[in-house]
Design brief:
Blueprint: E1 11-13, H1 35-39, E2 69-70, H2 73-87, E3 91-98, E4 106-113, H3 127-132, E5 146-154, E6 157-166, H4 176-179, H5 190-201, H6 206-217, H7 228-240, H8 243-260, E7 265-270, E8 276-282, H9 284-293, E9 296-305, E10 310-318, E11 324-331, H10 337-350, E12 358-361, H11 365-374, E13 379-382, H12 384-399, H13 403-414, H14 419-432, H15 439-446, H16 453-456, H17 473-476, H18 489-512, H19 523-529, H20 534-547, E14 550-556, E15 559-564, E16 572-577, E17 582-585, H21 589-593, H22 598-606, H23 634-652, H24 656-674, H25 716-722
Length: 723
């Protein structure tokens, strides 16, 4: 196996359109950050491209500005890369501050122009060779163009904010027509890969393949997003891999893990000559998590290993703190309904036959049929994130300048209250934009009961109906990349699961040390804050704060009409029976999210109800349902202290007085701890962990004749407890 052969095994999103037309595909990609630089020839280290786009139709991206906020650093990188593509330069990730052992992880990144920094020195072994080459200007010329982003944690929410931006270049910018030939912007999409393999199998050489693709896309020669060399490298990688041998090695890996850990579970099927067809597996911690949070499951099948021509399916959900939890994974032979049916059967076997209450999947008709057959008691819905990701490929070119307006109207109609309103507004929208004969809009309407919100309100989604943008992209990143072999896939997924569990445990411990901020002073809010997790309480708090804007009208005994104080008609009907603590609302908010809606909370407040009925504080949203219970082990103690230290750092660095106060007390506390016995004779439960075994010393700062720092107001009690 050559090095080139392993470069095409990264997971990418599939593009086959659910409309059934073999010539219709979805234009969406999910490349790894390092895929484009490794796959297509030499490039500067740490070079990072943006999201692939068609160069002839790239939209103008406004320049970043100081204070601009992004959900994560990848989103910031994507935005800056798209801006760079329009401007005529490339982006690379230069420096970062922080590390996995830091309480905030990586908290600062510098994204720079590809020509930033001093020229790279020539290595001694390359001096003679460089003399024989033509003289070439160094690519780096100390360009100062950059965007610096910094992590900002506010009220438990993490954002990346632009703290510095400069667009001053000391070199000529690249011509936009030639920019596509830079290594970072060359890529072969999943659709093109399948087409290339089909043409090569039919006997076409590389030149004929390029001409055929140019004709398919209607572009001039040289305007493809890849070159002849890229096609040759891709074909070489595809030929060098033996899928049958790799499948056997994958099965051996599962058997080895089963021998090492009897609780490891896997299912597989083989064809003739012991050729592996399908395989699915799960870990003991994942099965335990499914027993608590398996009521809502996402089955993401939007990735595949193209070098092996195999789709990947991952089952996951969210816990009571809003973090992704892994349930299981499958590598299938193909995307036929029979393969999906086998995957669902295997998943039930792995999970001891427990059916999920709701399952979200990609917009795939074959997958829908498989769920209906194998999970007849499970509610099936198409993920809104997958629906929205398909809209650009279907309508952006067709509607051109009207697309953004159409998208906003689509989202409005999608979230309407009743089915009658949805169907009426849908017809008006289709007519307004001239889409009556469009097959994609017809396909969406036919399957509206699986994605339109008015049809899903009575189904339980645990909060995922409004925030259903979870995918396995973030789960795979950093663990399954262009170097991953199929035989190593199970082990690498296990590493990713361990990492996610560790991150979730640290975040849970950190949240347990944070105080809730009561905003309404209502007893209902105070009661919920003592039971729900931060993630669940934020949803509850949003509803109870909004409830104060609603008026209540009693229509009959124990029945009320609740509507916004600015509305003169409409509203929702709330039934409230105090005797048996039963409440319900026509909006089906609790049935859908597990959180009492604003209409019910308004009625409970007016009826002098000071405690939330126990049955409406779901077990899956309570603190006690955490997958990481408290213990006295070394790992727990280390992570608990790390989380507490993170909070102390955030709070004490706000002002100079806070900093001096905390520094003085921590110095005394550290000296006291060092005088304590180093061995714990009561519990010999030391568990060495390579991630948390570093010793950190806090050295007191030198004081400048100022004596003991003055106390802060409200800190006397804490100081006494520490002493």
């Amino acid at each position: 196996m050559t090095e080139t052969a392993s470069r095409d095994t990264c997971p990418t999103q599939k593009h086959q359109c659910p409309c059934g037309d073999d010539q219709c595909y979805i234009d969406e990609e999910a490349y790894e950050d390092d895929e484009l630089t490794e796959q297509f020839g030499p490039a500067e280290p740490s070079f990072l491209p943006g999201i692939p786009q068609t160069f002839g139709t790239t939209k103008v991206v406004p320049p970043p500005y100081v204070g601009q906020s992004f959900q994560n650093d990848d989103e910031a990188l994507e935005y800056y890369s798209n801006f760079a593509r329009n401007s005529g330069f490339l982006v690379r990730r230069e420096r970062s501050k922080g590390n996995p052992e830091h309480p905030l992880g990586v908290y600062k990144r510098e994204l720079v122009c590809h020509r930033a920094g001093p020229p790279l020195p020539v290595k001694s072994g390359e001096e003679n060779a460089s003399k024989r080459l033509r003289k070439k200007k160094p690519s780096r010329c100390r360009c100062d163009a950059q965007m610096v982003i910094k992590k900002n944690v506010t009220a438990g929410a993490t954002h990346w904010v632009v703290v510095n931006f400069s667009n001053v270049h000391n070199h000529e910018l690249l011509d936009r027509n030639n920019l596509q030939f830079s290594p970072g912007y060359r890529y072969i999409s999943a659709v093109d890969r399948e087409r290339i393999l089909a043409l090569a199998k039919g006997g076409c050489n590389v030149n004929l393949i390029l001409r055929a693709l140019e004709m398919d896309k209607g572009v001039k020669p040289g305007e493809l997003t890849f070159t002849e060399k890229d096609v040759k490298n891709f074909l070489q990688a595809s030929v060098s891999i033996n899928p049958e041998n790799e499948g056997s090695e994958l099965l051996k890996s599962c058997k080895f893990m089963k021998e090492k850990n009897p609780d490891f579970r896997y299912e597989f099927t083989s064809a003739e000559a012991n050729k592996l067809e399908h395989i699915a597996w799960s870990y003991v911690g994942s099965v335990r998590a499914y027993t608590v949070f398996g009521d809502v499951v996402i089955f993401d099948t939007s990735y595949r290993l193209h070098a092996y021509n195999r789709p990947i399916g991952v089952w996951f959900g969210i816990d009571n703190n809003g973090y992704i939890i892994f349930f299981g994974c499958a590598v299938l032979l193909d995307e036929k309904p029979d393969s999906y049916r086998w995957a669902l059967q295997a998943f039930l076997h792995l999970m001891d036959g427990k059916y999920p209450q709701t399952m979200l999947t990609d917009f795939h008709i074959g997958l829908k049929d498989a769920v209906m057959t194998e999970l007849p008691h499970t509610k099936h819905a198409f993920s809104l994130w997958h629906i929205m990701s398909k809209l650009p490929g279907w309508f952006s070119v067709l509607l051109d300048a009207q697309y953004e307006k159409f998208k906003a109207e689509f989202c409005r109609v999608r979230d309407l209250e009743t089915r009658e309103e949805f169907e009426h507004e849908w017809d008006q929208m289709v007519t307004e934009y001239g889409l009556n004969s469009d097959r994609h809009i017809s396909l969406l309407f036919v399957h509206r009961s699986n994605w339109a919100v008015p049809y899903l309100r009575s189904w339980f989604f645990g909060g995922l109906l409004a925030t259903g943008d979870l995918s396995v992209k973030s789960f795979f990143r950093g663990f399954v990349n262009s170097q991953t072999r199929l035989k190593d896939f199970v082990e690498q997924v296990g590493v990713a699961v361990d990492f996610q569990n560790q991150a979730g445990e640290e975040a849970t411990t950190r949240q347990n040390h944070q105080n809730f901020q009561i905003k309404t002073c209502l007893p209902l809010e105070e009661h919920a804050s003592t039971i729900l997790t931060h993630y669940a309480f934020e949803m509850f708090q949003k509803e109870i704060m909004t409830s104060t804007q609603y008026a209540v009208f009693e229509t009959s005994r124990d029945t009320y009409l609740v509507r916004h104080h600015l509305s003169s008609d409409g509203g929702h009907t709330v039934s409230c029976s105090p005797s048996n603590e039963e409440v319900s609302c026509s909006c089906k908010g609790f049935e859908c999210s597990g959180i009492l809606c604003r209409h019910v909370l308004r009625v409970l407040s007016l009826k002098n109800c000071f405690l939330v009925p126990d049955k409406y504080l779901l077990h899956r949203l309570r603190r006690e349902s955490s997958l990481f219970p408290k213990s006295s082990g070394y790992n727990y103690r280390t992570q608990a202290l790390r989380s507490l230290a993170s909070i102390i750092i955030q709070e004490s660095s706000i002002t100079k007085d806070r900093f001096e106060y905390v520094q003085w007390h921590l110095s005394r506390l550290l000296n006291h701890i060092r005088d304590m016995p180093a061995a714990d004779e009561a519990t010999l439960d030391l568990e060495l962990s390579s991630s948390f075994d570093a010793t950190v010393d806090v050295v007191p700062a030198r004081t400048v004749a100022r004596g003991r720092p003055r106390k802060l107001k409200g800190s006397t009690k804490t100081a006494k407890e520490m002493r």
